[in-house]
Amino acid sequence: MMTSCVASTSAKAEPAALTRESKVGFFSRLFIPHSVRRAVHPGRAVKRAVTPKVVKKASRAMHPIDNAAYSVQRSVATTIRSGGKRKAPVFRHGSCPVKHRSAEAAARCQNP
Q: Are 94 and 112 in contact (CB under 8 A)?
């Protein structure tokens, strides 16, 4: 019985800008503001300035599955970060298009 072992020698190194390995961690996005994360790596601003726009767009393009997972992570992180803040109550009357902040304001309103 003979087994063959084939080694792949055609491994090409892709530029770092074109790979999808540079993802932001879930917890760093949740707890650390974007401005702070950018300030930690000042060299990236220079690199970004000299990179052509076509290359930037190609590096930002995500696979649809990765895009869906990223969207879910963003929505969960935003919900947690906002702390479940409630919206302020709105008072309406009749067919008035204005959203009043108090019942008194709605009562004073001149609109029908």
A: yes
Structural domain contains residue 99? no
* Per-residue pLDDT of the chain in tens (112 residues, 90 and over written 9): 444 444 444 444 444 444 445 566 777 777 888 788 777 777 777 777 788 888 888 777 778 888 888 889 998 888 888 776 777 899 999 999 999 999 999 999 998 7
**Would residue 104 count as lying in a domain?**
no
Residue 1 tokens read as 């019985």
* Domains of the chain: total: 1
> Which structural domain range is residue 33 located in?
22-81
Report the C-alpha gap between 74 and 3 in whole angstroms: 48
Question: Is residue 106 one of the residues assigned to a domain?
Answer: no
Prediction pTM value = 0.29
CB-CB contact of 91 with 41 (8 Å): no
Residue 75's nearest CA partner among 30, 41, 111 is 30
